[in-house]
Structures are given as structure tokens and as C-alpha cells.
Amino acid sequence: MSLIVQKYGGTSVGSPERILNVARRILETQRAGNQVVAVVSAMSGVTDSLIKLAGQVAPHPTEREMDVLLSTGEQTTIALTAMAVNGFGGHAVSLTGAQAGIVTDGFHTKAKITNITPRRIHEFLDAGSIVIVAGFQGESFEGQITTLGRGGSDLTAIAVAAAIKADLCQIFTDVDGVYSCDPRIVKSARKILEISYDEMLEMASLGSKVMQSRSVEFAKKFGVIFEVRSSFNDQPGTLVKHETAGMEQVVIRGVSVDRKQAKVTISRVRDKPGVASRIFNEIATVNVNVDMIVQNVSDAGTTDISFTIPADELPKIEKHLGPIVTEIGAGGFAAQAGIAKLSVVGIGMRSHSGVAARMFELLGQAEINIQMITTSEIKISVIVDEDRVDEGARIVHAGFGLDEPDSPGNAFLEPAAVGGNGLQK
Ligand code: ASP
Ligand code: MG
């Protein structure tokens, strides 16, 4: 007998029929001889409409009341799911976050789980019940209802799995798993069978937003192995876990595309301490998220600084750039939308060289111009024109052998066959 945590996202419980479908799955899992805890989200669209409702009665509702309101979305789903299971002749009980023993800090609307006392969960499981837990919510030490930030049901599932030492944690969603690239861009993209936490984090932050990043970090910290799979079919999904030696053999796990970026270049910035801080503090005050930052080697005491931001944030900072350029005595600035980020991700990069060289070669042969480059230990990202990025993704996906199911990501090299090009990547 295994102890299984299943999480069902908003789309999976988005209608009465879908809740019945979920109830059937949960019951089947139990009847196969397992103990089951199911964590559910609010039905799709509910959290958004609650936020909208709040805005219609008050311009700035307090965060405490927002939490009282938003937690009702998940509370609705747990009751309906438990009713559905019971309607099928099973036995399920619903528990709110507080009832399930999920204790958080007091930061309303973005609380952190501080600990879980799963006593009640265990009692109900031991009595033969299925336990349905509300995702996304908890209770602070002071007894207040809190929520965990958007997408927080993932975190509830991972944290509960860690607390009850589940044998398996399954994240049911509306996609089949994590793919080597977005299948809408690369038709030959494959479902990845196993991926390391770090690769998953890079893929998630790069726009393949299958799961909330915070929950993946949590899973990594507590060693919770989980599977991302679809609630609409019975296909196995993607297993996310600590890296294994075999995983390192694969150089590139996936390719990812981040559209709708904009690039800003401030030219002839004086090369002295405090200038970069001044620029980026100004941008931070208007709450714009800066992604890549590139500063050139200085030439005659000045340097160019370029950075990227989401394109729709450009209007927010444009009016700040002129004054800042004047204040720091820079040459000027240029802003350009219509660019996109193309990245390759893989822990195998740590032990294989020549990956960057290969990626640049592939793009160069296709005459796709690289405008900016950044790297991390397991990722290489380039900025290219947005209208070439899909083509670039297809070329890179094929060029690293990701199109072929049997030689994932390492078609082009053996560690010994490359090197000598001066690049660690
Ligand atoms: N219902 C919450 C949201 O929409 C939490 C979740 O779905 O994970 O963000
Ligand atoms: Mg959700």
C-alpha cells in the first residue's frame, strides 16, 4: 500500500463534469490499494473573479480580507470534490488548510508555510477515508486565514507530500508533462521523462510555466520527487527529481522561448562606482522586472549598458530613462521591442564543453543574429528578433538531437570530441 498525494489544478476541476472525473480518479487510486490525499485548486477562473469582485467594492481591500475571500475558491472545490467521491460510494472528507494543519507566517496574500502538523490527515487516512485538502491556503500562528501566492496549490501539494512522507506526489494538470520545447513551436518536441529540479526551475522561469517555481524549490529542498501529468488521460508524465548520473549524459534537456521582450541600451555610461546602482534602482522603483543585463568593457572611461524587460513594461520606464541619462551624464538611450529570448537548458552543460559554440553555430548558419548573450551554469540564453525566434528554436532543437527520441540532447558531442575552443560551455 502506498501513500499518494495528488494535486488537481483549476482546469482539472473547472466544471462539475471535471470534478466528477477527478473524483473517479481519486477513488480508483484508493481502490487500487493506496491511501490518497488530494489537494485541489479553485475552479478555473474563480480566483480571478474573486479578485475582480473585491475591486468592485473597495479600491484597496486589505490583504487580510483578500485572504478570507480568496480562500473560499479552494474551499468550494474541496467540498464539491468530497461530495462527488461520496456520491460514487466512496468515503472522503474535505479539510481547509487550517484543518489540515498547514501553518504559515502572517504575510497575507503571499504567506510562507512554516510547518505542517498532519495529525488530522493521518487520522482520517487511518480510518480509511480519502482526504481532500484545500490548496493555496493556511493559517497563521495568530489564527488568521492566509494564502500562499498565485499558483500556491502546487506548494500545498509538495509541502503536504513532504510532511506526510508520501511515497508519490502527482501534479495533475492540463498538459501531459514537461516538453523539450513548446509543441506549438516545435512539432517534434518530446515529453521529457525525467528532469532534475534545477532544469525544471530554469524551464519554469523561462516561460514553460507548468508549475509555480516556489514549489519546485521547496520540492528540491525537501527531496520530494513528483510527477507532472495530465488529468485528461492516463499517460505517464514527467518525473522531477534530484539529478542522477544518467541525467548528466544528456547535454540539453530542453529549449525554451520567451517572447515579447524589449531591450534598452544606455550608451556611454561613465565607468565609475554607483552608476549602475542608480539606473537599476530607478527601474526598481517602478516595479519593472529586469531580466538580462549586459555591460561592455569600458572604452575611454565609458561603457554601454543593455538590459531586457517584458515589452509591455517599456512604457512604464521610458519616461524615467531620459532624466536618468541626463542625471548620470550618459550619452543617450535606445529602446527596442520585438525581440525574444531563446534558451537551451541542461545540467549536462556542466560536464560537456562546446555547447555555446554549437548553439551559436546553428543560429549563425541560419543567419539569425544574436543581439545579447547570458549564461548560467545550466543555461545559455540569447536575444534574437522575435520574428526569427520560432525558427531558431526549431533549428536548435534539431541541432542538439532533441528531435530524435533515442538520442536526447547529446547527438552532437562526446566530452572528448570537443574542447580547445576556450569555452567552458
Ligand atoms: N487558486 C489559486 C490561483 O489561481 C491557487 C492555484 O490555483 O494554485 O492562483
Ligand atoms: Mg492554478
Keywords:
alpha/beta, 8-stranded mixed beta sheet, binds aspartic acid, binds magnesium ion
Walkthrough of the structure:
This protein has 425 residues and is an alpha/beta fold. It contains twelve helices and 18 strands. The strands form three sheets. Strands 3-6-2-1-9-11-12-10 form an eight-stranded mixed β-sheet, sandwiched between helices. The protein has a six-stranded antiparallel β-sheet with strand order 14-15-13-16-18-17. A four-stranded mixed β-sheet has the order 5-4-7-8. Strand 7 and strand 8 form a beta hairpin. The C terminus is likely disordered. The structure holds aspartic acid and magnesium ion. Aspartic acid (ASP) binds next to helix 5. The site of magnesium ion (MG) has 4 residues, from loops.
How does the SSE layout of this entry go?
Blueprint: E1 3-8, H1 16-31, E2 35-40, H2 46-57, H3 63-87, E3 92-95, E4 102-104, E5 113-116, H4 119-126, E6 130-134, E7 137-140, E8 145-147, H5 153-163, E9 168-173, E10 194-196, H6 197-205, H7 213-222, E11 226-230, E12 238-241, H8 245-248, E13 254-270, H9 275-285, E14 293-295, E15 302-310, H10 314-328, E16 332-345, H11 355-365, E17 372-376, E18 379-385, H12 389-399
Parallel strand pairs: 1-2, 1-9, 2-6, 3-6, 4-7, 9-11, 10-12
Antiparallel strand pairs: 4-5, 7-8, 11-12, 13-15, 13-16, 14-15, 16-18, 17-18
The structure holds aspartic acid and magnesium ion.
